[in-house]
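[Automated response] Your request has been received and processed.

Submitted sequence:
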Amino acid sequence: GGPLSFGPTADTMTWSLQSVIVDGRDMTDLPIDLVNEPPKDVVVTYGDRFQELSGRLQSQSGAPVSDYTMVVFPEDRAFWIQGSRRIVIARPGTDGRFTVSGAGPTTLPPGRYLLAAVTDINRDEQFDPAFLAQLVPAAVPIALAPGEKKVQDLAIK
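Generated structure:
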């Protein structure tokens, strides 16, 4: 047989973080300020529902396009922070198909997002608010409901 593996893998991990409520406020993807006093009440909720966002990148003629990077990021600029799980990049395959959210811990939380295709992106540039601001005018708005599987195709102009 093949090598034995123990513990969860990306394929078997179906749980994802749903919320972190700190003293009654949803702080799931926001930095928590612990300077003044520690929170009295922290509730972390995991669930097995996930959001899926995929699609196909194509030219105006319908031919697949793969030499771009897909960037999905939240509409709300409060979440434009380094390392946010709400900001995801993915490269399309040679058939133009891409997936930016799927099952498990890397699922995008439900919410309102913008989807864009870029030719050049530097390491971690997707977390730079100035870079994201430039993408907003041409980005496609997407709302992801809890458990929703959405397909959004994009044509490069």
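Summary generated for your ticket: The CA atoms of residues 19 and 102 lie 17 Å apart. Helices lie at 129-135.
If you did not submit this request, please reply to this message.
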